Amino acid sequence: MRKFVAIHNLGCKVNAYETEGMAEKLIKAGFSVVSFEEKADYYVVNTCSVTNIADRKSRQMLHRAKKLNPDAVIIAVGCYVDTHGRDEVCLDGVDIALPNKEKENIAEVIKAWDESHREEAGGLRDSAAYGEVIRNSGNQHHISGEGIYTRKFLKVQDGCNMFCSYCIIPYARGRIRSKRIADILSEISSLSEKGYSEFVITGIHLSSFGIERPEDDEDLLKLIKEADRLPGVKRLRLGSLEPRIITTEFVEGLRGTESLCPHFHLSLQSGSDTVLKRMNRHYTAKEYLQSVEILRSYFDDPALTTDVITGFPGETEEEFEETYRFLKNIGFYETHIFPYSRRKGTAADRMEGQLANSVKHERLTVLQTLDSENRRKYEERHFGKQAEVLFEDGNEGYTREYIRVSCPEGRIKSGEIHTGTITGRDVAGTLMFTLSS
Ligand code: SF4
Fold first, then answer.
1. Could you tell me the distance, in angstroms and rounded to a whole number, from the CA of residue 338 to the centre of ligand 1?
2. Residue of the CA atom closest to atom 1 of ligand 1
């Protein structure tokens, strides 16, 4: 029986969580999960389709898998399949294509493939065995700790109802569905019993956690507070948040949640109100700034990170300048900058004033320079300060603010937490950390 499976993850933290879930299911089903560079019998690419570049990367990884072993079964899963359709994806040398809602069946699908029609043109997607697997679906990914990563991402919510004008995700992932808090807590408990201490709570639109079931009275704040109380949880980190969730009431509610890391990703996209309006984002730059000020008044110099799109349709020089000034004024720790990418089927794709790629990339370069400067300043503000680091491999780890540091002393095991001081930067630019005696 062929049994080596290689999995590659692309895209967001939700995908990372689901990749981990697939790895675990495959291991439980008797497969060996190997690195993507090794020769495997099956290559699974957990795709992303958030931009044209993400589409291209998804296709490249699928082609790469085929090159690594021309006899392997190539499996595309996730958003690229949702946005392009199974048939189109399978035209491109892919044997099996699974949309997001069918990822959880990965082990059964592979087994069904092996037992049935590997040589048949068109692949498993048309076979009776495949139909059987899909009819039997319904369970959700649930990570219990035998996956392939050290930090644990927990997907607590899927789908989005926001319909930002540039985004294909609500079409690819559907409407909001949230897990129940009791189920999430039991998942965290079983993971912390296995020794994991940091949990990253993620979702496609995390701020909407629980809103589709108001009768249950479950929201993100309640989830954070209850997870914080669990024994063994040393660190909680939040995935991307919509700025409007950060109110005084919300942050007051976080008081006493010792495990919550002072690291917040507030999605911005543009610092210009007119662009935000065209993007169908539901806040102004001023409201965003208020959220930042609230966080800074409750946490000591928290790490604030964000996303920005350059060259949105109709973005004028003045609008871009507004964004530049806004980013400079806030001084984020890290800004993820993306050139606007047209997605068929979205409102922004139909807008007039589409800009040339050269303009999008020029603006991206300007913001990248600003980002490097902001990042350097933030890191340097922590030089000489006490920090607590959760170590991963090779004596490297992350502070609670998610500053990556390296410790030259001794041999530190993955998963250990130590306090010490960030002493500075070495010649290669690595931030150095000394343990407290
Ligand atoms: S909030 Fe907007 S950008 Fe984020 S997934 Fe929903 S529609 Fe897309």
1. 14
2. 162
Domain that holds residue 58: 4-135
pLDDT digits (tens, 9 = 90+) for 92-131: 778 888 988 888 888 888 887 777 654 443 333 323 333 3
Most confident of 2-16, 90-104, 122-136, 285-299: 285-299
Residue ending a domain, among 343, 363, 381, is 381
Distance CA 423, CA 382 (A): 9
Domain identity same for 362 and 235: yes
Has this prediction a pTM greater than 0.85?
no
263: left (phi over 0), alpha (psi -120 to 50) or beta: beta
Distance CA 427, CA 365 (A): 24
Among 166, 250, 165, 148, residue whose Cα is nearest residue 209: 250
How far apart are the CA of 4 and the centre of ligand 1, in A?
36
Atom of ligand 1 nearest to the CA of 160: 6
Buried b (16+ CB within 10 A) or exposed e, 399-424: bbbbbebbbeeeebeebeebebbbee
Tell me if 418 sits within 8 A of 435, measured CB to CB: yes
Q: State whether 237 and 298 are in the same domain.
A: yes
Which ligand 1 atom is nearest residue 173's CA? 5
Which residue reads 């790490």 in tokens? 303
Q: Is the dihedral of CA 177, 181, 184, 188 positive or negative?
A: positive
Residue nearest to atom 4 of ligand 1 (CA): 205
